[in-house]
Design a protein that fits this description.
The strands form 2 sheets. Strands 1, 2, 5, 6, 7 and 8 form a 6-stranded antiparallel sheet that branches. The protein has a two-stranded antiparallel sheet with strand order 3-4. About 20% of the residues lie in helices and about 40% in strands.
Length: about 100
C-alpha cells in the first residue's frame, strides 16, 4: 500500500505519466505493405517513438521487411537485422513502400 502511495506521489510531483504509458506493448495494426525501401539514414528503435532506444541504423537503398504499423501510422514494425521486431519511421521522407500483400 505504501509503495502505491509513493508511486502516485511521484507521478503527481514529477509528471511520470508519459513514462508509465509506454510500459504497455505498443498497439500495432495490420498493413498490406510487406516491404519498404529506405530513402535516408534511419534509426532502428525498440518501439514506435523517438523516446525508445536506438539499436541500429538502416542506410539508403536497404529493403526492410514490414510486419505491421503503429496505431498512429507513424512507425513501421519491421524485422530487426539480428532477429525479432524493431521499429522505423513511416514518414515518406525516410521510407517508401515497395511490396504489398
Amino acid at each position: 500500500m505504501m509503495r502505491r502511495l509513493l508511486l502516485a506521489a511521484a507521478i503527481a510531483v514529477f509528471g511520470l505519466t508519459p513514462l508509465l504509458a509506454h510500459a504497455a506493448p505498443p498497439a500495432v495494426r495490420g498493413t498490406p505493405v510487406r516491404q519498404v525501401l529506405v530513402l535516408a539514414p534511419l534509426n532502428i528503435r525498440t518501439g514506435p517513438g523517438t523516446h525508445f532506444h536506438v539499436v541500429g541504423r538502416y542506410h539508403p537503398g536497404q529493403q526492410v521487411a514490414v510486419t505491421g504499423i503503429s496505431d498512429d501510422y507513424n512507425w513501421w514494425r519491421v524485422r530487426c537485422p539480428r532477429g525479432g521486431t524493431c521499429w522505423i519511421s513511416a514518414k515518406p521522407i525516410y521510407t517508401l513502400p515497395i511490396a504489398w500483400q
